[in-house]
Amino acid sequence: MTTALPPRAGRRCHNALNPIHSTLYFSPDLDREFGALGFTDRSAMRLAARSSALGAVGAGAVAATFYNYNHGFLAQHLPAAWDIASPAEVLDARLRTADATLRRLLGDEAVASAEMAEAAELALRASEACTRHARPLYAANADLPVPEQPHLAYWHATTLLREHRGDGHLAALLSAGLDPVEALASHTATGKGMAPRWVLGTRGWGRADWEAATERLRERGILDADGELTESGTALRAELEDHTDRLDSAPYEHLGAAGVERLTELGRGFLFAAAGAGAFPADLVGRG
């Protein structure tokens, strides 16, 4: 039985949970753990960490599932990463990184708290309603065992919910006719996406790719001459998120309104604490 949710309640919950998964990719603990495996390139570390649930995949599979990465950039690191460490070894290192990162950012008291155990239970309950079909990153992570420790179970559940929504978002991007760089540039123009220097540095695109994409968006009437979203562009980005909400409604409907509200409250508490402890670069988000 489902319970009617307030508008965008699932999205608000996602926004509280998703960054906890993402702390991994900015963590010095990842550099340490993956360095011990033999990795020396930071891009290779992060690509291997996120794709490891898929197995020893190459650049093609990752370009498809990550959507907005340059295939040539991916091919510099994959499948070569699996010669350094197997996917199983990377998954173990990923979980050790999550453990060290959450302990460092939140503190041992929060990690061992009743609130953490409650958040893990609620997030895992929500994930029970996630579906595998046409959701490769979610499905691959859903095949992994749930960690026993509550803070790691919570991180695992945020991963499941993040990738479930993300897989659906790719369908929305395709439906909207946005290619990888256009998707990134239009998101950045909302003021809520990654700043261009972070996009270019982590996704493997060049400045010429970015400029060409923004020009295509201008031709479509999505961006104006100053690179700001037009009225049509704002409407397109809003519909993208609404479309993604519809594709991602099941876990939050399954959890119910009270559960979603409580999970959002708990998730925000952990997120604010992590952000306050320096989990993310200060210049990560913005148009500049």
Brief synopsis:
By secondary structure, the protein is mainly alpha-helical.
Lay out the secondary structure.
Elements: H1 9-22, H2 28-37, H3 42-51, H4 59-66, H5 71-75, H6 81-84, H7 87-106, H8 108-111, H9 114-127, H10 136-142, H11 150-176, H12 180-189, H13 196-203, H14 207-219, H15 231-247, H16 250-255, H17 257-276
Helix pairs in contact: 1-11, 1-17, 2-7, 9-11, 9-17, 10-11, 11-15, 12-14
Describe the protein in words.
- By secondary structure, the chain is an all-alpha fold.
- The protein contains 17 helices and no strands.
- It has helices at residues 9-22, 28-37, 42-51, 59-66, 71-75, 81-84, 87-106, 108-111, 114-127, 136-142, 150-176, 180-189, 196-203, 207-219, 231-247, 250-255, 257-276.
- Helix 1 (9-22) packs parallel to helix 17.
- The protein starts with 8 loop residues before the first helix and ends in a 12-residue tail after the last helix.
- The model has no long low-confidence stretch (mean pLDDT 97).
